Write the structure tokens for this entry.
Amino acid sequence: GLHLHAPVTVEYALPSGARRLWFSAEADLRGIDTAQRRWTDMHLIVRVDGREVLRRHITGDSQPQPINLEVTGRTLTIEVDPGRNGPVLDRLLLRQGVVYIEP
């Protein structure tokens, strides 16, 4: 998986022929007890060539969220933006990422 801590922005060059992106997004709660989960509050923002294609609010109580996006373009940007509680425990885990490339 990919572990990200807000605030952070990562950018990837998409391979030629990229069409779809699949992954699972969830709060990374390792080492966080139940009382501390209230501090986990962030926004996952995904852009393709600068155009926003996804915005999800994720908290310590959120279930893992399957993401399935069209990503026809040259660059993929993933941003984790702190929520109202600030970036205290805003850690995100992205799992099982797959880019479908059209043959």
